[in-house]
Amino acid sequence: MASTTVLLVGTRKGLWVGRSDAERRDWSWSGPHFDMEEVYSCAVDTRGGETRLLAGASSMWLGPRVRRSADLGATWEEGDGGGVRFPDDVERSVERVWQLVPGAEDGVVWAGTEPGAVWRSGDGGATFELERGLWEHPHREQWGAGFGGQAFHTILPHPTDADSVTVAISTGGVYRTQDGGHSWEPRNAGIRAEFLPEGEQYPEFGQCVHKVARHPARPERLYLQNHGGVYRSDDEGGSWTYIADGLPADFGFPVVVHPHEPDTLFVFPIGGSGGRYPPGARARVWRSRDAGGTWQELAEGLPDSFYVAVMRDAMCVDDHEQPGLYFGARNGAVWGSADAGETWEELVRDLPDVMVVRAASVAD
């Protein structure tokens, strides 16, 4: 069966939708959707044999909205009030939707927001309910905010256990529920908070985690890009092991797992102090095929003068048998590889500041 590859690119001034065939060489683009609105999150939901696009847009006039499309972006709809709103007894306002993730159950969509809150939708993203167990957690008042704000930027529903969800916030760290959100426990043992004084750098919570990823076939294994450090957990966050040896820098934002190989992951290292751009200003993706034991530089086709960063959600992989890998940068360029990172080409340029990219293959 023929398939179309869909690539969503969320920027600080709208969303672009790219389409290609399975070869992923020639692309057509539509956009901007939601012109001049910040798009920090998006998703391609292919559950149930249908394709639905989701986008978390923030309008300076209307505030945050979760928008949905069933026709690859030709038309969009949203729930009342944008779908994500604090209940009347909570005196806060949602500022941005940082994460949208289809859940393990049909119709379930998870959202992560700024201020730091997690939300669950049971109707495909039309309406969302606040996860009060996390919002009312005793740690919440002590969570800090990174330079980009305080937000839940990682939500990992367990692929087979609907009651288990792992989340991460900057700055607060990793938390997990196993009882459907009634209670949440921190899962940060072994993650270093390098910005804290000596002797206090391994707290129970408070780490500036940048992104966490996992493979659905091996859900107990997690990979984490920290504010200084790349880590692996083999017990779903119960303990973490540093795996950045061999990288040119251990600071970065995204971490991505190969869709068919649980031991293969990708990162995009940048400088942690001074300029937030790749070491030597050379755009490079780094791949490990042994769960972080060793690393290989992927460079063919990438530029050697690249003074910009790739943000936490601006790197992704599609689900083709030969997967495509993508990243978008703060200079408005989006790069793609149709061979899992071996070779690269620029897919589009001169967009606004790229915040998020998401890709999937969909049946024609």
UniProtKB/TrEMBL annotation:
One GO process term, biological-process aspect: xyloglucan metabolic process
What InterPro entries does the entry give? WD40/YVTN_repeat-like_dom_sf, Xyloglucanase_GH74
Know the name of this protein?
BNR/Asp-box repeat protein
Q: Which organism is it from?
A: Nocardioides aurantiacus
